[in-house]
Each structure stands twice: as structure tokens, then as C-alpha cells.
């Protein structure tokens, strides 16, 4: 069995963002040479997420509104976590959107359903964050 590992670094200009990272994952899959196996993609930070969904701007706006209703950023004082930092909402948003995704690899391609793409969700940006891509298989 082969194994491939790569870390990516993401630094957004905004506190929150959704970034389609599918092209980067495909590039890593091609570099790995693996034709049958699994791809794991996970955010290596507790205020960021990786998830699969449609690359549609209206849906992303809906995610933003929905997450803000569930875990509003302000007032910062509403959260016991906020003291040294002001990012409790980002921790909660990450729990909702998830830490990682696993995608099957078949015939050297990501085995997606219709419209599926891989996204990085940032909830406390403006600094470097790590993203891990691990591919195993033959």
C-alpha cells in the first residue's frame, strides 16, 4: 500500500470564508499516483472545517446566515470561552460543519456524487492555518 501526505497553509483576508479546495486535492491525488484508495482531508485547527457540498454562492451565503444564527459572533461576552480570545463562535461553527472528509478514489479520480466539491471553512481567519491531505491506497 502507498501513502501520500501533504500539508497546505491557508490564510484568509476575512474572519470567515468558504474556499473550494477540490483542485488542490486533485493535484495531490495526481502527485500520489494512487489509483484506488481513500483521500482524507482535514483542518488542522479547531476553528476551521472541511466539508463536502455544492459550489454555489447562494448556498454559501445560506451557510453563513445559518451558522451566525446558531453561533453568533457577537456579543463576545455571551461565551464563557471568550476572555483571552474572542473566537468561541468559531469553535462552535467548526463543530457544526465538521473536521474532515474522506473520499473514495476509483480509477485515479475522486469518487464524487453529482455536484460534490471539497471545501475549507474558515471561522476565525486572518492567520495561517494548516490543512492535511492524506492519501492511502494502490
Mean pLDDT, all residues: 97
| Alpha-carbon Rg, integer | 16 Å
CATH topology: Jelly Rolls
What percent of the residues sit in helical stretches (DSSP H or I)? Answer: 25-40%
What characterizes the major β-sheet? 5 strands, antiparallel
* Number of DSSP helical runs: 3
- Unreliably modeled segments: none
Largest sheet, spatial ordering of strands: 1-8-3-5-6
CATH superfamily (homologous) name: YjbQ-like
Compressed to H and E, one letter per element, the order equals EEHEEHHEEEE
Shape: elongated
Structural class: alpha+beta
Number of strands: 8
How many domains, as an integer?
A: 1
Second CATH tier, the architecture: Sandwich
The span between the termini is 5 Å
Report the top-level CATH class: Mainly Beta
- What share of the residues does DSSP label as strand, in percent? 35-45%
What's this model, at a glance?
The chain has 138 residues and is of the alpha+beta class.
Structural write-up:
This protein has helices spanning 22-32, 57-70, 88-97, and strands spanning 2-10, 17-20, 37-43, 48-53, 100-106, 109-110, 117-122, 129-137. The protein is of the alpha+beta class. It has one domain (2-137): YjbQ-like (Jelly Rolls, Sandwich), CATH 2.60.120. The strands form two sheets. A five-stranded antiparallel sheet has the order 1-8-3-5-6, with helices on one face. The longest helix is centred in the middle third of the chain and has 14 residues, at 57-70. The chain is elongated, with a radius of gyration of 16 Å. The mean pLDDT is 97.
Record the SSE blueprint.
Blueprint: E1 2-10, E2 17-20, H1 22-32, E3 37-43, E4 48-53, H2 57-70, H3 88-97, E5 100-106, E6 109-110, E7 117-122, E8 129-137
Antiparallel strand pairs: 1-8, 2-7, 3-5, 3-8, 4-7, 5-6
Amino acid at each position: 500500500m502507498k501513502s501520500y501526505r501533504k500539508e497546505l497553509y491557508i490564510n484568509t483576508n476575512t474572519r470567515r470564508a468558504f474556499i473550494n479546495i477540490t483542485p488542490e486535492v486533485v493535484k495531490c491525488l495526481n502527485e500520489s499516483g494512487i489509483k484506488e484508495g481513500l483521500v482524507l482531508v482535514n483542518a488542522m485547527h479547531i476553528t476551521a472545517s472541511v466539508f463536502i457540498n455544492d459550489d454555489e454562492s447562494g448556498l454559501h451565503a445560506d451557510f453563513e446566515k445559518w451558522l451566525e444564527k446558531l453561533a453568533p459572533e457577537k456579543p463576545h461576552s455571551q461565551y464563557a470561552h471568550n476572555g483571552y480570545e474572542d473566537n468561541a463562535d468559531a469553535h462552535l461553527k467548526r463543530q457544526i460543519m465538521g473536521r474532515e472528509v474522506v473520499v473514495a478514489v476509483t480509477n485515479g479520480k475522486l469518487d464524487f456524487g453529482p455536484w460534490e466539491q471539497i471545501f475549507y471553512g474558515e471561522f476565525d481567519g486572518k492567520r495561517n492555518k494548516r490543512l492535511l491531505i492524506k492519501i492511502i491506497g494502490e
